[in-house]
Specification:
It is a single chain. The protein is mainly alpha-helical. It is built from 2 helices and 2 strands. Strands 1-2 form a two-stranded antiparallel ribbon. The longest helix is centred in the last third of the chain and has 35 residues. It is elongated.
C-alpha cells in the first residue's frame, strides 16, 4: 500500500486510465511499475511529470505527451517514443541509446549530455533544442528539423543527417567525422576552427552564409560538396565502364 493510501493513475490524452497502482509512493514509481509490467503507455499524458532518474528502459511511449516533463538522468534506452511530444522537456543526461524517436517533437528541449547513440530521430523536430555535449554517434537524423539547434561539442560520429534542416545551427566544436550530411541545409550555421567534418559526406550540402572561423575553412567546405558530387559521378562512370567490360568478356 502507498504510504499515503493514494492511488496513482496514468491516463491517456482522452482521459482514459491506462494503468493505476496504490503500491507506489509517486507518479514516477507508478510509471516505472507500468513499464516493468510491460504496459503499453501509448498516448499517455505525462505532461510536466517529474520522472527524474526513472528507469523506463524499453518503454512503449508511442505518441505520449511529455511536454515540460523532468526526465533528467532517466533511462529510456530502447524505448519507443515515436511521435512523442517532448517540447521543452528536461532531458539532461537522459539515456536514449537505441530509442525510437521518429517524428518526435523535441522543440526547445534540454538534451545537454544526453546519450542518443544509435537512436532513430528520423523526421524529428528539434528546433531550438540544446544538445551541447550530447552523444549522437551513429544516430539517424535523416530529414530531421534542426533549426537553430545547439550542438556545441556534440558527438555525431557516423551519424546520418541526410537532408537534415540545420539552418542557423551552432555546430562549434562538434564532431561530424564520417557523418552523412548529403543534401543537409547548413545555411547560416556557426562553425568553429575545431568543428570536425573529416571524411563526412557533404554531397549537395548547403553552406551558404554559414559563419566560418577563417577563409580557408570557408573555401574548403564551400567547395567540398561539389568535389564530392564530382567524385560520385566519376565513380559511377567507372562502375558502368567496368560492368560493360565484364559483360563483353562473358560473351
Amino acid at each position: 500500500m502507498s504510504l499515503f493510501g493514494k492511488t496513482y493513475e496514468i491516463k491517456d490524452m482522452g482521459g482514459n486510465v491506462i494503468f493505476k497502482s496504490n503500491k507506489v509512493d509517486s507518479l514516477k514509481e507508478c510509471v516505472e511499475l507500468a513499464v516493468k509490467d510491460q504496459v503499453k503507455l501509448v498516448r499517455a499524458n505525462l505532461e510536466r511529470a517529474n520522472l527524474e532518474g526513472a528507469n523506463l528502459e524499453g518503454a512503449n511511449l508511442k505518441g505520449a505527451t511529455l511536454g515540460k516533463a523532468n526526465l533528467n538522468d532517466a533511462n529510456l534506452s530502447n524505448a519507443n517514443l515515436e511521435g512523442a511530444y517532448l517540447i521543452e522537456a528536461n532531458l539532461k543526461w537522459t539515456n536514449f541509446e537505441g530509442a525510437n524517436l521518429k517524428e518526435a517533437c523535441l522543440k526547445k528541449a534540454n538534451l545537454e549530455n544526453a546519450n542518443l547513440k544509435e537512436a532513430c530521430l528520423k523526421n524529428a523536430n528539434l528546433e531550438k533544442a540544446d544538445l551541447m555535449d550530447a552523444n549522437l554517434e551513429r544516430a539517424n537524423l535523416k530529414e530531421s528539423w534542426l533549426y537553430d539547434i545547439r550542438l556545441t561539442r556534440a558527438n555525431l560520429y557516423k551519424a546520418n543527417l541526410e537532408e537534415a534542416k540545420m539552418t542557423e545551427a551552432n555546430i562549434a566544436s562538434a564532431n561530424f567525422e564520417g557523418a552523412n550530411l548529403k543534401g543537409a541545409d547548413l545555411r547560416s550555421a556557426f562553425l568553429s576552427d575545431d568543428t570536425i567534418i573529416k571524411d563526412a559526406n557533404l554531397e549537395g550540402a548547403n553552406f551558404v552564409s554559414a559563419r566560418f572561423p577563417n577563409d580557408k575553412m570557408k573555401q574548403d567546405y564551400l567547395s567540398k560538396p561539389k568535389r564530392d558530387a564530382d567524385a560520385k559521378l566519376i565513380k559511377d562512370a567507372q562502375a558502368k565502364i567496368k560492368a560493360a567490360m565484364m559483360s563483353r568478356k562473358s560473351r
